[in-house]
Design brief:
The termini are far apart. The strands form 6 sheets. Strands 15, 16, 17, 18, 19, 20, 21, 22, 23, 24 and 25 form an 11-stranded mixed β-sheet that branches. The radius of gyration is 33 Å and the shape is globular. 35% of the residues lie in helices and 21% in strands. The chain is α/β, with parallel strands linked by helices.
């Protein structure tokens, strides 16, 4: 009586070509699955090594679970072996595995359970790229945002990012009947078969499930001498295959009317696929470049404008220069693309704008592409610049290396008569190891660049350790009149492959290495790697490597990794919160200690500053501590303790403080002990709905709302400047009446005093001088709020009026000070220099308001403050409907209540600015009514009231 083997749950097709050593590990990862009813089909692509014999041995060792098939001839790709494996498969589901990768132990169980539960044709899980040759088992999650939670889609169009980004076939489980019914197969004889197969599968699937579990380990060997098929980007056929695959996918999308998916895919091709090849162009010959450009141009020139509109400036420049085969200007652009922020060309100023190159300026379309004014290169000082330093010579003479290069001098930032010095620095890539420096002969000016040349005695002076400092990076420090800039050496067309290796004497003897070989880093820069040429070095290194991978070394590395993990864990936010709650808050309160914070530590400003300065004026016996955000504090007062936000010192200061005083909110999860008094000064009256009046906040879960309310309950006192704040902010944040301080905003004391005084504040006079504003020149302040998209992300700042037109029309009458919101970054064109000044970096807006004769704003809460001065206030509400009618809404109709004109267009705005005298006369009474309605408690003594109440008339804490 014959028996029929049960149908496997999953058939895992393992493809192999000349990989006999790693094949057993891949197959083992399937056999060790927690889901036992799994079969393995090893599809050998006609290997020339022993892979097929290994496959047959595995099949013999696991009868009924492992089968081996062999293609009669090599197919040259991954597609056909997978097709043959599917034909041989018997399982309800099919998965694919490459012989150099592994499955996570629970992959089959998790994917089959999800497929059975949802009835999906396709289940996809998280893939992890494992860098097997990294020292610390580097792992990179593959598009993790797609897999944050389990979700089921009825169409891939519901999640375009899945279609566009996760094009792997290997981290997926397919219903076998689905593959057969839809005749899904990999293309034969062409690379990038995954892209086409995955696209077809996504589009054919009636249901797709994503699971947050790791299912696939994609093993990557970064230092391999022979690149994988998909990584041989220097071969023109490779790019031709990629373009052909994309064309086939485009045809399918066109037939299905999937225009949105097509657009998303086009954008990804420009931003990702094309860049993979552009980064190789500097090292390839003109023939390859020409053929590459022809292929690329034939494909991307028909992309819609909407795809190009999504490119950032440098991407767009690269794309357009590549289409024109302008290799001279493209190579620096590629350098800037690979190295964010690098200034790679001398730049040119034309009609008050900054351009990448002076070519194409007579072409309006290209002029727009090449306009890099908004990148702000021209506004940087030398020590803020990351300059392209192109290597022009590399030769080896015994143990000496001759290096020469050319550094770009953008817009002649380095003056021709500047005193120049330079040094080369060789630094081990691994942190905290050695650095060697070599002074250079004086660099010299050469047209729009600075050239340098040096003979470096590397063999004699560079002494690496030899075992943990294999890679050395090279930097050049250029100093011009005391300002220093640091650059990396871009290799470009200098031939390093045929260069001699440099003899080297490691401190651990030549058993470790005996040569330094020049190489190109991933970002195109010169680096050196220790190598072993002689027999002694090769033998010694091999012995060390064996020991490094032996049991004692593995134990030592494991212990080291555990120590690092413990250090990371000790400095994690979770651990800090635990220590804060369980230990730091048990320390005694330090009487008189006041922790101040303004705008989450970003500034020394606002009402916390006003209260601090009132205490300091009274010489109060307090211990002030200011928090700061970022790498280093800027603009904070001398003589006070500064603590970095979220540091251990910050947490300890908060835990032991007698007072917390801030204007926005200390970290929400930090509890406040009862002995500490929290004075929340807030940062402005509200036009837009806030707190629990926001629909988004009300949509949070009950648990999330409760946590937020607990953070608000920490406030012991909440400062308001008028009953409008009571009706809006206090209600929105559920602040009870007994916590309200009806004192007005301390930051506004200076504004009220200035309104009532006829003399100018000395601080304001110093500010005008520092900004270069001539005496008697009228000053306008433009202070808009930020804009956010539907997804909540802050939009880039853009002037809603033509700033150059403004400067041309009003530049002789006004100086315009532009104060962008702290969430925005502002760049002004050179054409408006002296007439428009960026004051966004000023830590406190109050002196700017005092300096301004009139202010332009839109919906910023600064309107409530500036109104106190009773000076002209202009509301440029060019997008009021969009702003007022979004999901948050506003507390009142600004158009009806504004104490100043509300122009809606640039023409209307300029007309208003042309007669500010009339504005002052027309709106004087309305301004007073506005102040009485929205700021009746701002009387100029808010800081004094608060200090009196909490610290006593003498400033002593009580």
């Amino acid at each position: 009586m014959s028996t029929v083997a049960p149908e496997p749950d999953v058939s895992v097709v393992v493809i192999v070509y000349n990989d006999e050593e790693r094949l057993p590990t891949a197959v083992g990862s399937v056999l060790e699955q927690t889901l036992r009813n799994v079969e393995v089909i090893i599809a050998d692509d006609c290997s020339t090594d022993g892979s097929h014999e290994v496959a047959k041995a595995l099949a013999a060792a696991h009868p009924g679970r492992v089968r081996a098939i062999r293609l009669p001839e090599n197919s040259g790709g991954c597609g056909e072996p997978r097709n043959q494996g599917v034909r041989a498969a018997r399982g309800r589901y099919v998965m694919f595995l490459d012989s150099d990768d592994t499955l996570e132990r629970n992959a089959c169980r998790n994917m089959v359970e999800a497929a059975d539960r949802t009835g999906s044709d396709l289940v996809s899980g998280l893939c992890v790229r494992v860098h097997t040759d990294s020292r610390h088992d580097k792992r990179v999650l593959w598009y993790p945002w797609l897999y944050r939670s389990t979700r089921t889609l009825d169409s891939v169009a519901e999640l375009p990012d899945l279609f566009v980004f996760d094009t792997l076939s290997t981290n997926k489980c397919y219903r076998r009947a689905f593959l057969l019914d839809n005749d899904l197969a990999f293309p034969r004889g062409i690379h990038y078969e995954d892209l086409l197969f995955s696209a077809q599968a996504y589009l054919a699937a009636e249901r797709i499930t994503l699971i947050p579990n790791t299912v696939y380990h994609w093993n990557v060997v970064q230092k391999t001498a022979v690149k994988s098929i998909s990584n041989r980007r220097g071969e023109i056929s490779n790019f031709a295959d990629r373009v052909e695959i994309h064309r086939r996918i485009d045809a399918i999308l066109d037939r299905r009317g999937q225009d949105e998916l097509k657009l998303r895919k086009d954008i990804k091709f420009l931003k990702h696929d094309l860049v993979l090849y552009l980064r190789e162009l500097p090292f390839l010959d003109d023939d390859y470049r020409h053929r590459f450009a022809e292929l690329a141009r034939g494909y991307v020139q028909d992309f819609p404008e909407a795809a190009y509109a999504e490119l950032d400036k440098i991407h767009a420049i690269c794309a357009q220069l590549m289409l024109r085969e302008d290799w001279t200007d493209l190579m620096p652009a590629i350098d800037a693309l690979l190295n964010r922020g690098k200034i790679a060309t001398p730049l040119v100023e034309h009609d008050g704008r900054i351009y990448w190159t002076d070519r194409y300026l007579d072409d309006a379309e290209m002029r727009a592409v090449l306009d890099v004014t908004a990148l702000g290169y021209h506004a940087k000082r030398l020590n803020q610049m990351f300059l392209r330093n192109r290597l022009t010579e590399y030769t080896v003479h015994g143990g000496d290396v001759t290096l020469a290069g050319r550094i770009v001098n953008p817009l002649h930032t380095v003056a021709p008569d500047a005193k120049l010095t330079a040094e080369l620095e060789f630094r081990a890539r691994r942190r905290s190891l050695q650095t060697f420096r070599f002074p250079l002969p004086a660099p010299r000016h050469d047209g729009d660049g600075i050239t340098w040349r040096a003979e470096v005695p590397l063999a004699r002076l560079l002494r690496p350790l030899g075992i943990v400092d294999d890679v050395w990076d090279v930097r050049l420090h250029l100093t011009a009149d005391g300002r220093r800039t640091t650059s990396r050496l871009t290799v470009g067309t200098v031939d390093l492959e045929d260069a001699e290796a440099v003899p080297v004497r490691p401190r651990l003897t030549r058993l470790m290495a005996d040569r330094l070989e020049a190489q190109v880093s991933a970002k195109g820069h010169l680096a050196f790697r220790l190598t072993q040429h002689g027999r002694v070095a090769r033998t010694g290194r091999a012995a060390v490597e064996r020991n490094l991978h032996g049991r004692p070394a593995r134990a030592a590395k494991s212990a080291y990794r555990k120590v690092r993990a413990v250090r990371r864990e000790l400095n994690s936010g979770t651990r800090k919160l635990q220590v804060y709650e369980r230990m730091l808050t048990k320390l005694p309160v330090r009487k008189g200690t006041v922790v101040f914070e303004s705008h989450l530590g970003k500034q020394y400003s606002d009402s916390p500053r006003a209260i601090f300065e009132e205490l300091r004026r009274r010489r109060a016996p307090i211990t002030p501590i200011w928090s700061y955000a970022g790498e280093r504090p800027q603009g904070f007062p001398q003589g006070v303790e500064l603590v970095r936000r979220w540091s251990w010192r910050y947490l300890k200061a908060l835990a032991q403080a007698e007072y917390w005083i801030d204007n926005q909110g200390y970290p929400l999860r930090l509890t406040k002990r009862p002995e500490t008094t929290y004075i929340q000064t807030w940062h402005g009256s509200a036009l837009k709905r806030m707190g629990f009046d926001e629909p988004g906040l009300r949509m949070l879960s009950e648990v999330e709302q409760r946590a937020y309310q607990q953070a608000l309950n920490r406030f012991d006192h909440f400062v308001v400047r008028g009953e409008h704040d009571v009706r809006t902010l206090a209600r929105a944040y559920r602040i009870p009446e007994d916590k309200l301080l009806r004192t007005g905003y301390p930051r506004n004391d200076a504004l009220v005093r200035a309104r009532e005084s006829e003399t100018r504040n000395p601080e304001v006079q110093r500010l005008a001088e520092r900004l270069g504003i001539e005496p008697g020149r009228r000053v306008l302040l433009y202070a808009p709020t930020f804009r956010a998209g539907a997804d909540g992300r802050v939009r880039d700042f853009r002037f809603p009026f033509d700033i150059e037109d403004f400067a041309a029309r009003f530049g002789d009458d006004f100086v315009l000070l532009v104060r962008a919101h702290y969430l925005n970054r502002l760049t002004l064109p050179p054409s408006v220099a002296g007439r428009v000044i960026d004051v966004s970096a000023e830590p406190d807006i109050t002196p700017l308001m005092l300096l301004a004769d009139a202010m332009i704003t839109d919906y910023s809460s600064v309107m409530f403050d500036y109104a106190l001065l009773r000076r002209p206030l202009v509301f440029y509400a060019h997008d009021w409907e969009e702003y007022a009618e979004d999901t948050r809404g506003t507390y009142f109709d600004l158009l009806a209540e504004a104490p100043g004109p509300v122009p809606r267009t640039q023409e209307e705005l300029f007309a208003v600015l042309g007669d500010l005298g009339a504005v002052r006369a027309k709106y004087e009474a309305r301004l007073k009514e506005f102040v009485d309605k929205y700021g009746e408690y701002d009387r100029g003594d808010a800081a004094a009231q608060i200090v009196d109440r909490f610290f006593g008339p003498a400033g002593e804490a009580r």
